[in-house]
Amino acid sequence: MKVMATDSNLQFIREKIYQVRSAIMYSMSNEVVKMPNNIVTAIRVDDEGQLWFFSKRPVQFVSECEQTFPARLKFYRKGVSFFLEISGKATIMSSAANVDVMKDTAKSINEKPVLIKMSMTNVEYVEPEERKKNKLEMALENGYNWLLKTVAFHRHSKPVLTRLPQSSI
User: What residue ranges do the domains of the chain occupy?
Assistant: First the structure.
């Protein structure tokens, strides 16, 4: 856990994960029966650097899936100026014992989520740099905006076909 060497790094990562909350999980396992790639919801990041999240239950039984597997999570949300990619070893926790909170909201066993704990081994935080426009791009954008504001098209209230002259047969 090189990234989480200090408490401030862990706190920074925790805040960023809580800000986005949802990610796409990719199971990097080579097994035939594995957890499917899907959208997951982060629950918490504990003090040991373990990321806990809910995942949708696979089509097959959870017991048939590999219980510990390499995984990658990509945290991204529209409107947020950063994204996170986290990889590590994910472990399926006992879905029946740890998801008691979800009993009331889930209608059947297939709708109950699976609780997964992930040991974060690699965390990539990327804040894309906004590219500044050059003078030509700015002039073109300003000209286009001016054109949209000043040029108006006459809009007819009736459809075109009703305005055509009626021919007699």
Answer: 7-126
pLDDT tens-digit map of 50-86: 999 998 887 777 777 788 899 999 999 888 889 999 9
Superfamily designation of domain 7-126: Electron Transport, Fmn-binding Protein; Chain A (2.30.110.10)
**Can you tell me the distance from the alpha carbon of 93 to that of 89, in angstroms, rounded to the nearest whole number?**
13
116 closest CA partner among 166, 75, 62: 62
- The answer to whether 121 and 1 have CB atoms below 8 angstroms apart is yes
pTM for the whole structure: 0.63
Distance CA 95, CA 116 (A): 9
Q: How far apart are CA 1 and CA 48, in angstroms?
A: 10
- Tokens 């740890």 found at: 98
What distance in Å separates the CA atoms of residue 4 and residue 120, rounded to the nearest whole number? 9
